[in-house]
Amino acid sequence: MKKIAVFGLVCFLVLPLSIHAQTPQDVVYAAKFVCGAISDNSGPLRPGYYDTSISILNKKGYPVEFLWIATINDGPTSNAILRTLEPEKSTGMTCKDIKDIFAIDRNELAEGFVVIRIPVASLKGLGNEQILPESQEAANALEVQVFYTANALPTLPHKVAEEKITFYIIQDSSGKIPKEMHRKVLDVTISSTFGEISNTEDKIKSLLAQKYDLDKNDLGKITVRIKDVSIGVGTLLDDHAISLHVVKPFLS
């Protein structure tokens, strides 16, 4: 009688554990995204333009179904979108895709997550019963990578022109420009625009007006002479950063 009781107790403990071990679990990826612009120092990121690209690869020899949901930090969550990815094919989503769903302006900052879920049970109908109920096999079905870019400049790298202007201040009846600068060789370097026709003397007077608080009447009392103008062409540096993150799956 004692042996039978012990045997019954052992069966009672082992049976629930066996059922739990065979319960299929969905495979989930959580990909962080940052989209849009930050124009001040309020944080948490430095001022700049941020973009995110999420890429998904089916590494298996059979189609894989997955759901993806986007959620904005402290904001709305999208409806689930069902996708079927063919064998060894890839797809992806970008900030544009995410912002289109939520009708967010292109430059508005949006942070959150894209949750990619593989419903393991759904694979039964695809002739892949051999991988069930082993969620570990399904965990290796997709490769999810996130590519982040950040640019602190409002435009892409491009050529810029600079003018170095050498000049004299011949006369100043306003009395606002220090006398030690009169009839001395002076120079200044300013940005220039390709194909633009401009008056170099007016450019110098405009700079003098900003520096010495000259009004229109004061400028009429100043005489300048341009000695030389030289042009330099360079490339605007790109304050650009990129990073790649491989998203690890977990069971849910």
Short description:
This protein has 252 residues and is of the alpha+beta class. The chain is built from 5 helices and 12 strands.
Describe this entry's structure for a reader.
This protein is α+β, with helices and mostly antiparallel strands. It contains five helices and twelve strands. Helices cover 19% and strands 42% of the residues. The strands form two sheets. Strands 1, 2, 3, 4, 5, 6, 7, 11 and 12 form a nine-stranded antiparallel beta sheet that branches. The protein has a three-stranded antiparallel beta sheet with strand order 9-8-10. Strand 3 and strand 4 (81-85) form a beta hairpin. The longest helix is centred in the N-terminal third of the chain and has 20 residues, at 2-21. The protein is rod-shaped.
> Could you tell me the number of beta strands?
12
Radius of gyration: 33 Å
Shape: rod-shaped
Strand content: 35-45%
Q: Multimeric state of these chains? A: single chain
Helix percentage: 10-25%
Order of helices and strands: HEEEEEHEHEEEHHEEE
| Amino-to-carboxy terminus distance | 43 Å
Largest sheet: 9 strands, antiparallel
Helix and strand content put the structural class at alpha+beta
Number of helices: 5
Q: Regions with pLDDT < 50 over 5+ consecutive residues?
A: 1-21, 125-134
Kindly state the mean pLDDT as a whole number? 80
